[in-house]
Amino acid sequence: GAVVSQHPSWVICKSGTSVKIECRSLDFQATTMFWYRQFPKKSLMLMATSNEGSKATYEQGVEKDKFLINHASLTLSTLTVTSAHPEDSSFYICSARGTDNTGELFFGEGSRLTVL
Amino acid sequence: ELKVEQNPLFLSMQEGKNYTIYCNYSTTSDRLYWYRQDPGKSLESLFVLLSNGAVKQEGRLMASLDTKARLSTLHITAAVHDLSATYFCAVDLGWGGGADGLTFGKGTHLIIQP
Predict the structure, then answer these.
(1) How far apart are CA B1 and CA B67, in angstroms?
(2) How far apart (Å, rounded) are the C-alpha atoms in residues A53 and A46?
(3) Residues 7-46 in A contacting B (C-alpha not used; CB under 8 Å)
(4) Best B9, B42, B58 residue to mutate vs chain A (most A CBs within 10 Å)
(5) Do B95 and A106 touch (CB under 8 A)?
(6) In angstroms, rounded to a whole number, what is the distance separating the alpha carbons of residues A25 and A16?
């Protein structure tokens, strides 16, 4: 199957700083990528849809100015958590659709953010 | 608004037993996925169900999809400890346009005891 890679796998930062997480499709091009957030022992919640070359589409309740998404190329989307606070601590997972006829979504390894 | 409900949310069972996890959803869809998640890890794809009546099996796991009933099941046969994990179903409304992400159930936390 297709491979989606995230970096970093985990990050610890101080409150008030910004953190960037990268999501790359390694062996296919992805015009659309999705960013999810998962709190401990909870399910995945879709935050936003990242569209190559255009603005991201955010789900209701997700702050656009706090979670900046850039999809500059067909293989890279970035999520920047700006002015992070402890409540932003979470597991962030990206995904992208493969290019075969199943349309299956493939998930990155996830990035665990801890804000002190 | 699409709602995806999994049942049960927590399951503890002994090795060797059989059990079924249920996934109901509220909007017509013919695409449903099952994922496994181990603690601290991302999602591992188990099954992709693409049509009504689809049935897929891998080892001790078997998944099925009934789009008319809006129901998918994940059946575990003769459970072994290694199957302990959290299992998620997810409904896909985005195929075709590709613009929508998946909607996940809350997950079933499965513990299999020796």
Answers:
(1) 17
(2) 20
(3) 31-32, 34, 36, 41-46
(4) B42
(5) no
(6) 30
Closest approach of chain B CAs to the CA of A51, in angstroms?
Answer: 8
pLDDT one-digit tens code per residue, A67-92: 999 998 999 999 999 999 999 999 99
Q: How far is A64 from chain B (nearest CA, A)?
A: 17
Parallel/antiparallel/unpaired status of strands A57-58 and A44-51: antiparallel
Sign of CA dihedral A58, A61, A62, A63: positive
Note the pLDDT tens digit of each residue in A17-56. Answer: 999 999 999 988 888 899 999 999 999 999 999 888 888 9
Q: What is the DSSP letter of A28?
A: S
3-state secondary structure of A88: helix
pLDDT the model gives residue B31: 87
CA distances from residue A14 to A18, A79, A116, B84 in whole angstroms, order as listed:
9, 17, 5, 35
Q: Tell me the torsion sign for CA atoms B93, B94, B99, B103.
A: positive
CA A22 to chain centre: 7
CB count within 10 Å of CB B33 equals 24
B9: left (phi over 0), alpha (psi -120 to 50) or beta: alpha
